[in-house]
Design a protein that fits this description.
- The chain is globular and about 45 Å long.
- The longest helix has 15 residues, at 295-309.
- It is α/β, with parallel strands linked by helices.
- An eight-stranded parallel β-sheet has the order 1-2-3-4-5-6-7-8.
- Helix 1 (7-14) runs antiparallel to helix 2 and helix 6 (114-123) runs parallel beside helix 7 (145-154).
- The chain has helices at 7-14, 17-25, 28-35, 63-74, 87-96, 114-123, 145-154, 185-192, 208-217, 229-232, 240-243, 277-290, 295-309, and strands spanning 49-55, 76-83, 101-106, 128-132, 157-161, 197-201, 221-224, 266-267.
- The structure holds zinc ion (ZN).
- Zinc ion is lined by residues 131, 133, 161, 201-202.
Length: 313
Amino acid sequence: MQSPFSRREFLSRAGSAAISLLANAATPRASAVLSGAARPTPEPVADRIVDIHVHFDEKNPGFIDDFLKVSERLNLTACVLTPFANRRVVADAAKQHPAQIVPFGFVDLDAQDAVQQVKEFRELGFRGLGELEFVRKPYTDAAYMPVYELANQYGWVVLFHTGIVLRRKFDAAEDVASYRMRAFYLEEIARRFPKITVIGAHCGNPEYEWAAEVARWNPNVFFDLSGSTLVKMHDRLADFRKIFWWSGTDEGTTTPDNDPSAFSKLVFGSDTGLDQIEGVVRQYRELFEACSVPERTQKLVMGGTLAEILHLA
Ligand SMILES: [Zn+2]
């Protein structure tokens, strides 16, 4: 695809300078892509699923062990979204199982000590933030900038909830509104903080068009399709070809590995209990089928893109 940005620019925008170094040094995956069948391709990472959206379950004392079993069975690495109170158990587990657990810190952006929490997460070896959600103000409010500044400085991946959000208690007042988490807010964050890889959960449900267009123009923006979308759209999955419309045109901006498919702006996210992750994998495969997504792009979506951004080995 004709593209105003080079692959190297994309990589430095999407992640950190280290990624460009990797690209220059030709990682096994990158070299295989670049040279086709000319090199042997023992690519365990390439076929590994990377799930951006696994919430740590504080109610399950055996969560880590349960997760490791699922991880082995599905060949899956997860960004484990961790409440501040559970930070140590997940940090320890990630040190023991770095190929399977990537620790992400959940902070309440409205908490007085949000910045301090982010720093502590970093000291414990956390690799990103998320899922940011239930905000009192729109994501682009000035009050949240110090957290984004830090994430930018760290070159982190940040997962934002986007779109419709559940109501936790039907009989109690709560200061929560979906409009504060609309997908288009991610555009400003991605542009002001180019070293953050911005990932929107749920593809802006139901504002998929906004989500896709923001991803199209911003190399450091991706979306996952977790939540109810793939259920709701089950009988019209091919509609996503209209939403991610620019495959094979000159209208897209830089994509991972200069992939010509617009679907390379998606990453895999489950946002379910551990026993349902496999079902979400199936839903993604159905989407790929319905939209004729090329196999190379499927691999990027299911793990290749995040493996590169997160330097998973
Ligand atoms: Zn969410």
